[in-house]
Design a protein that fits this description.
Layout (H helix, E strand, L loop, with lengths): L6 H5 L4 H22 L8 H8 L3 H17 L1 H11 L1 H17 L7 H29 L4 H30 L4 H22 L22 H30 L6 H10 L1 H15 L4 H19 L3 H22 L1 H5 L5 H30 L7 H13 L12
Helix pairs in contact: 2-7, 2-8, 2-9, 4-7, 4-16, 5-6, 5-7, 5-16, 6-7, 6-9, 7-8, 7-16, 8-9, 8-12, 8-14, 10-11, 10-14, 10-16, 10-17, 11-14, 12-14, 13-14, 13-17
């Protein structure tokens, strides 16, 4: 059932209030899908881009790393956009920029153009990411945990769809053109922008005038750093495991398990998402889920390093499950632990810190491998992320809320 309904509305699910809650939740779920469609359309066609534009490995690395860099660099400008334009308009702007940048990536056969449009697309997605927690707080304040689980479920589906369908469905429909493939995956994002513009709530109840809203994060707030590092441990675990699992398996003669391991890591996120849809409201502000999942991430990382064959796949799946569960719970914390008009500032800082961690930890993992000459050492920084999460989690309810 949707939140904060009166007795009469509970008896009448078709009441205007019930319909409004359903529509708003549906829009946020669609926006969650749009967070990843244009980004994850790239990996399946990297070989085609590599051949058409004559790119080397370093240039491919830059192409795949640009979105994560923008997630960190454009988060605070996204906060400014929310403060000046409001949640609804900022979300529409982010969706529109992501759709336009994503569609134009193949318009000119030049790597510089590809980089520039990828930067534009990444900036749009960064604005969208910062906008989602304030949108949840503003539009559905009674069910923050549940609606966060809903839009995160959309995000995970948005990660899977382009990876699964780009080669088998989309490319055959567009004559094998990766350029038109990008247009196809950008079209739904543009459609969602139109839906949000037309149907999303237009007034933020109880907020101050947008012209007077603050946007620069309070970097002295302990809450910001705690949330940023906690989310950073999960982002780093996910990205670093994706990056090093294939080479690690190849180094110890288990290349045949690479595809299954990566599939388990990513598909394992979906069960966590569906479970959180049912119980997220009951886990709000609870410490034990963070501690439990942090321990599971450490155990899963050890299983990858010390296991073999199917045990590695099972461990990677467990890793994906635990990471997704924590991702959903942490994304609900800015609207839960911040005063309403500070959610955008806290969220922007959280993403800036967390995606910086997602860049730093893989570098440390690579250095650990190179300096030791032992492939398994690449997973030591990843395991430490789970330990840091366990250490930081117990105090989340005792940190002074930002903006108070």
């Amino acid at each position: 059932m949707f939140p904060a309904m009166s007795v009469s509305s509970l008896q009448n699910p078709s009441s205007p209030r019930s319909q409004a809650h359903f529509l708003t939740t549906l829009l946020l779920w669609l926006a969650g899908i749009a967070l990843r469609l244009t980004i994850l359309a790239v990996p399946p066609v990297i070989p085609l881009i590599h051949d058409d534009l004559k790119l080397n490995a370093t240039q491919i690395g830059i192409l795949t790393g640009l979105p994560s860099m923008l997630f960190a660099f454009a988060a605070v400008p996204g906060s400014l956009l929310i403060a000046r334009l409001g949640v609804r308009t900022a979300l529409v702007v982010g969706l529109s920029v992501a759709a336009i940048g994503g569609a134009l990536r193949g318009a000119v056969p030049d790597v510089g153009w590809l980089y520039a449009t990828t930067i534009a697309m990444g900036a749009g997605v960064a604005v969208m990411q910062v906008t989602m927690p304030p949108a949840v707080r503003t539009w559905t304040p009674e069910r923050i945990g549940f609606v966060t689980a809903v839009y995160t479920n959309g995000l995970l589906i948005g990660e899977i769809l382009p990876v699964a369908l780009m080669l088998v469905l989309v490319l055959p429909l567009v004559g094998g053109s990766w350029q038109w493939g990008f247009v196809v995956w950008s079209a739904p994002v543009a459609a969602i922008a139109i839906l949000v513009f037309a149907l999303a709530p237009k007034v933020a109840n109880g907020s101050v005038a947008t012209a007077r809203r603050r946007w620069w994060p309070d970097w002295n707030s302990p809450l910001i750093w705690r949330l940023g590092i906690m989310l950073g441990t999960i982002n780093a675990t996910y990205f670093a495991t994706n990056a090093f699992l294939p080479d690690y398996l190849r180094s110890n003669g288990q290349s045949e398990w690479i595809s299954a391991g990566l599939t388990g890591l990513n598909i394992g996120q979906l069960p966590a998402s569906f479970i959180l849809l049912a119980v997220a409201d009951r886990l709000e502000r609870k410490v034990w889920p963070y501690v439990t999942c942090g321990v599971l991430c450490v155990v899963a990382t050890a299983g990858i390093v010390f296991g073999s064959g199917a045990w590695i796949v099972a461990s990677a799946t467990l890793d994906g499950f635990a990471a997704a569960a924590i991702l959903i719970l942490i994304l609900a914390l800015p609207p839960l632990l911040s005063v309403p008009d500070d959610v955008h500032r806290v969220t922007a800082a959280m993403f800036t810190i967390s995606y910086s961690c997602a860049v730093i930890v893989p570098v440390l993992s690579g250095l650990a491998w190179d300096l030791s000459g032992i492939a398994g050492f690449a997973f030591v920084p990843i395991a430490l992320c789970g330990i840091v999460l366990v250490i930081l989690a117990p105090a989340i309810n005792h940190v002074r809320p930002a903006g108070t």
